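Researcher: Good morning. I'm working through a list of sequences from a screen, and I'd like to move beyond sequence-only analysis. For each chain I'm collecting a predicted structure so we can compare shapes side by side. This is the next one on the list. No need for commentary yet; just the structure.
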Amino acid sequence: MKALFDLSFTTFVAPSIAWIVYILLMVAIGIFYLISVIVAFYSSTGFGLFIMVIVGPPVGLFYLVLARVGVESLIATIRTAKNTAELVRLQGGAQPNAQFGPPANYPPVPPFSHHGREHPQVSASAGAGHAGCD
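Model: Good morning. Structure tokens for this chain:
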């Protein structure tokens, strides 16, 4: 429950409640199927049987597959994010919750003029290839 109120989003909630979401989606698909069959039977008995036997099961199965794929995609994305953060941590990079920006051991990047000429602090070899950008 604490993770729901974590405004820094350091903890993922979706993996722990994915099964609940999937069950709710299955129940919603089942209710929609039953309502569709009832409405179809109010129209006519033949149409009700047609919806109940021919149309309803494949449509319900299709939406169940879409729900499952959606939940699995969400979980796979979260697992990829967790694994990537762990790989960065193992490589000695920034912690997953660190501020954005280059690590402290990177050298500063020298600025260039927007006219293609070197900035006064940059050596002559660094600006080569930028001449004629005027």
